[in-house]
Amino acid sequence: MTIRAAAIVCAVRPHGETGAVVRVLTSEHGMIAGYVAGARGRQLRPVLIPGNAVEVELRTRDTTRLPSARVELVTSRGPWLSEPLPAAAIGWVTALIASTLPERHAYPSLYLALGALLDAICHAPSARGWTEALIGFELLVLRELGYGGSTDRPDPADWPATLAALDRIGILLERYPLAERRGDVMAARAMLRERLARIEA
């Protein structure tokens, strides 16, 4: 079986001497994992950054082995990883998706929303320009995974209310989709929340 699709890199785990297991989110196939040979080499390291948009090709010879994957860069988020707030936001949203979505279940709305949120994080003039989108994305994750979640949104001009909304949603994420993995993944959100708190009201 061969799958070719546009995808967003969500997680990269070293495997063997030079390779890595890469988890990507696609629109039609959901979260899929594949082994990328030479992933830690000079050519592929900049491609396999969580948040990057890529074209992926996965080939499966049998159902007992991890598919081999080839990836080509479409859009890099690398330039924003040197900025503390965008870097923390990109790290959090990709870790959230990689940790909560089951393999091979399509969530086209989450794929589109993640791409739009990453674009906003990278191109908005400040974090105030994308925090509302982050709240909407986290609520969408809760709804898509069957945990409900309020649709109420704070006034974007009310920064304390926005931070309070983030705190309420964080409790739901920790309690439900991340109940078994909250230590690792919620640490990324805590870092983001701490950095957002430094923005003046």
Beta-strand fraction estimate: 15-25%
Structural class: alpha+beta
User: Biggest sheet: strands, sense, closure?
Assistant: 5 strands, antiparallel
- Please compute the radius of gyration using only Cα atoms: 17 Å
| Helical residue percent band | 25-40%
Instruction: Give the mean pLDDT.
Output: 94
What is the helix/strand order?
EEEEEHHHHH
Strand order of the largest sheet: 3-2-1-4-5
Low-confidence stretches at least 5 residues in length (pLDDT < 50)?
Answer: none
How far do the termini sit from each other? 53 Å
**How many strand units?**
5
Q: Looking at the structure, what is the overall shape? A: globular
* The number of domains: 2
Number of discrete helical segments:
5
What is this entry, summarized?
By secondary structure, the chain is α+β, with helices and mostly antiparallel strands.
List keywords for this structure.
5 strands, 2 domains, globular, alpha+beta, OB fold (Dihydrolipoamide Acetyltransferase, E2P), 201 residues
